Amino acid sequence: MTTAALLIDFGSTYTKLRAIDLDRRRILGSGQGPSTVTTDIMIGMKAGLDDLERRLGGLPRFKYRLASSSAAGGLRMVTVGLVRELTAEAARRAALGAGAKLVGAFAYRLTTSDVERIVSLAPDILLLAGGTDGGNSDVILDNAEVLGRSALACPVVLAGNRNAADDARAALAGREVLATDNVMPEFNVLHIEPARAAIRQVFIDRIVHAKGIDRAHAEFDRVLMPTPAAVLEGARMLADGCDGISGLGALLVIDPGGATTDVHSVGSGEPSAPGVIVQGLPEPRLARTVEGDLGMRHNAANIVELVGVDAIAAEAGLDAARVNALVAEISGDFDRLPQTADEIALDRALVCVAVRHAVTRHCGTVDTVYTVSGPVAVQRGKDLSEVNAVIGTGGALVHSPDPRSVLEMALADPAVPRSLRPKAPKLLLDRHYLLYACGLLGTAEPQAALELALANLDAMARNPSVERAVIG
Amino acid sequence: MPAAIVARSDGVYTAKMPVVVTGVIGSDTHIVGNRILSMALEQAGYKVVTLGALTPAVEFIKAAIETNADAILVSSLYGQGELDCRGFRDLCVEAGLEDILLYVGGNLVVGKQAWPDVEKRFLDMGFDRAASPGTRTETVLAWLAEDLADRKRRDA
Q: B28 catalytic, yes or no?
């Protein structure tokens, strides 16, 4: 009898199931139902299980049933910090790293209209930071006070100046407050792991219930994390490996979606060349960025605007009027799969732009500063030029007729040497949407999860005609 | 001044420890003097936030806000200090740090110019003290102790 695991993703449109044979490290089958969190989550869950049962000819007994969720708008978070580039940025990164959907990021003293805006955003969790330990406490205390007096009802994760933590907690009276380590205990020291863990804890303890996901509790053991956090965790496992299994080393994951494009990277991002000076806030080894303006459906018009309709038209081999008409058609239809040859060509042009821009924004830059003692190279952000692998995931890549050519958009461009994008990585495709499943299963059976993920990443064959351009 | 400083407990400095921000402004890589000054300040019991070489003016100010600094000590060794420091006090005022102590020191100008002229120029820019080339760290420590004590008396 096989030992099986069930991995569930309560998504925004689908409830996706993966059944895994733990002994033989293979996928037994997949099932899918609609997302029904807003009505009754059990409808979608049952539909997914029925679908899976049909495909397998019966359901095995599952040793683990682990779930992630991005349903009901995902884990909607607001972050508040002091200086925009310092504690406010550290707070933002903590929230993104925890798999949140960032709906608002605020800095400095909150104004009355800021507070009104936060209340109307109705986040699931608010992360309040500000000040290094022993540093500024006025602003975080003022912010705690105005938030404390507001109609904000959500739990607050407090990760600011520890000397202000007790007073801030008191000012937030009546709300659930989880105090944790400062996201920036010393100037320019990024310390976001404790805040990430606290966010995840609030998610498990409170949000899963608040969103009605736990009504399906008979069908799963635990909802462990938001789906983007599961993807990041899967990426971390693939990079680092585990006991007895070596990983792929530093890597980058790109996930172009309907509304946003996510990029995850695992790696120190330190300069690959000697003598380079690094400036700015230190980068987390596990980094996630979300490009809110780069989405294949909701934001298709933004992508077109970014590079101009003519560039998209040329790339897709369509005329500009046709591009505009198609974009208008697909923008409102979140789950639309391309139907016609024109739509397939347009999707390819859109996803190429989304990948190129999202990866460029995720990766750092190196610039030459001319000093009296000669030129100096100054790096900002992560140097990902030496990563070993670039992994594509998500429907827009999996359904693409030529995923390799899309993934190549993530690569370094000799014409833009300041951008520290990957130079010569392996290009891999997560064809069976297993990264999230690997991240979930890794919490219980890391070796099985890792072997499964490694075995199911498709290497994209190199097309000799583009090789020269890539290496050049 | 260092008498008022409370020792570190479990690696965390206390709120009573004065905080100073140091760095070398502009496109200047001469870090040695700034490092010596930072070490002397640390030994004297200050909490020192070191920004290092090649630091733009705004980064001094952002660091000072976040760490609630008492003073910013700007080094400039390559002769461009006058250009790099122009508007520094205004930036502080803009950021709500109108009262922060500002020191500047190093080879602040190009060529041989009389120090009193140079000093006056930097004091007019809003710096509280300007240190001529060759100023000893003891002198800077004495200035800081005096100026911080003055402010404490004034604010009391």
A: yes
